[in-house]
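for the record, two folds in this file. i put them one after another cuz i was lazy. first one right below, seq on top, structure tokens after. the second one comes after a little note so u can tell where it starts
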Amino acid sequence: MSSLVELDVSYNHLEGQVPKLGVFASTAGFKMAGNWALCGGAARQRLPPCRPAKTTTRPGHLLLRIALPIVGLALCCLAVLFVLLRCRRRRSRIADTTARSMINGNNYPRVT
């Protein structure tokens, strides 16, 4: 974009560092009113200096942010599955006991 003479980016909520070369070097060709988060650029533009970039998060922290919820969800699912299987097994034992007592004749009067 070497042939660009004028650039108006006013009130676009832009942020970040402004380049120092090309149309950005002159105050006449670059209009940026209303973009309070811009920084750096040529000295004539009177923008605040840019702060050093924040360091990126370490891969370990990213792994914890992803792995910890997945492991927690898996443990919750296993707990629910365990409870459901225990209830099903308990019902099965109760039904089994009832069926055996009916076969043995405990529910009917004995006649000789």
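(here's the note) second protein begins now
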Amino acid sequence: MSRAHSILSKLPLAVRPEKPAFSQTTHRRNKLLVRLREQREMARCMIEGEHFEVTKERWVTDEETGLRKQVSLPKQVRQWYNQIDSNMYFEV
């Protein structure tokens, strides 16, 4: 045990630098950008007649094995735009 103690005592100690925190404004801006990309992709799929689906990652416990695993589940996304006649109206 004294050998391990002597090895540890030779190691230099340093203070861990703190991670810079994102401001709340930056965090909200990034969330809005993600949502705007989803809306753009949803509109593109609607125009081209494709199926649109967004997934989210969730941890689920498997009932058979009892182990936790990460699965992709569909996420409900509401449209921020409306089509009236031939015009598209976008709301944020």
